Structure formats: C-alpha cells, structure tokens
Amino acid sequence: MDTVIKNSLDRSMSYQAYRNLVTQLVEENSNTGNEKTEALAEYTKLNDRRMKRWDKTVKVTDETLSRIEAFREPITWLVITESWCGDAAHILPVMNKVAGLNGNIDFKVVLRDENPELMDAFLTNGNKAIPKLIMLDNSTGDVLQTYGPRPSEATNYVSRFKAKHGKLTPEFKEDLQHWYNTNKGQNIINDLTEILCELEPSICQ
C-alpha cells in the first residue's frame, strides 16, 4: 500500500497543473482517461467552465477560516479524478481553496485511469467513484482519512433517490448540478473543516 501511494504521489500534479491540462484538453477537444469520446470531451469543456467559475467565487466564512488556518500538522491531500467527472468539477476547486488557506496542506491531483492500483485501494461501495480525496500524514505516510466522492448532503440526496428509484436519472443528475450551484461549496468546506477538527481537535474548541 505504501508503495502504491508513493508511486501515485510521484505521478501527481499540482491543482494549477491539472487546471492547465484540462484547458489544453478543451482546446484539443479531448479528455483525460483511457476512454476518449465526444461525450467525455464535451463534459470536459463544461467542467472547465465550472472550475473557472468556482476558482473565482468560492467563499469561506471568518470562523471557518480561523479553524483552517489553525491546523498545524503537515499533511498531503491526494485527490483522484478525471476531467469528465461532473462532481469533481464542483469539488476540486473548493478543496484547492481550503488547502490554499493553510501552508501545512499540500494539495496534489492524480488521474484515476493512470493510477488503477491506487483507485482499487480506495473504492466506494466497491465502485471506482471519483473524486476521492486521500489525506496523508507527511511524517509517517499513514492514511489519516478519506473523503468523497460527494459531499455529505449530496451523498444523502443521492442515497435517498437511489433507494426510491433504483438508479440515478438524467433529471436527477441535473437537479444535483443545481444543488452544487445553490450550495456554493459550503457543504464541502464544512465537511473538510470537520475532518481537520477530528485530526486536530484543539482547532475547534
């Protein structure tokens, strides 16, 4: 496991490098991942626009900011994603915003299809669901916590719909996009801050 994570870290890129890659793929009408299709290229275009918007507009409250800034343990956030993933386009800019508020958090991005062993080690209910965030202790290399593929409120929303209807419909997926737009990243920020509080309780007392 340590080797799998280390190899993936060696292949990782900064958030800015990932954003540059997505922008380049839009120009080439392409997408990340093993499968290249017109539909996935279109999702990549849409996601590039979403990320541009969130990169500019995500806001953090003063109370949350003080908690994030108080976190003292040097950690790495390694997130698994692909350019075509709709959830990731809403979530990664928020993760980057939070990580950017504390110099002890190093935010790295890896692509799912280029890191199959890593993905297989962090499945969600047996699925290769992304984005998946792995929080690592820099001094020991231990996995401290994982997060994803969706924020807590969206996860509950999806679970309720699946329980009732069996699978997600195109209409539901559209509703989920509206939820992300209305929530403006606040559920993600709260979830991530809560995890930091669990790792270092003194910052939230």
Describe the structure.
The protein is α+β, with helices and mostly antiparallel strands and 205 residues long. It has one domain: Glutaredoxin, CATH 3.40.30.10. It has helices at 2-11, 15-27, 38-57, 62-70, 86-99, 116-121, 152-165, 170-183, 186-199, and strands spanning 75-81, 105-111, 132-137, 143-147. A 4-stranded mixed beta sheet has the order 2-1-3-4, sandwiched between helices. Strand 3 (132-137) and strand 4 (143-147) form a beta hairpin. The longest helix has 20 residues, at 38-57. The protein is globular and about 45 Å long. InterPro entries: Thioredoxin-like_sf. It comes from Flavivirga eckloniae.
In summary, what is this structure?
With 205 residues, the protein is α+β, with helices and mostly antiparallel strands. 56% of the residues lie in helices and 12% in strands.
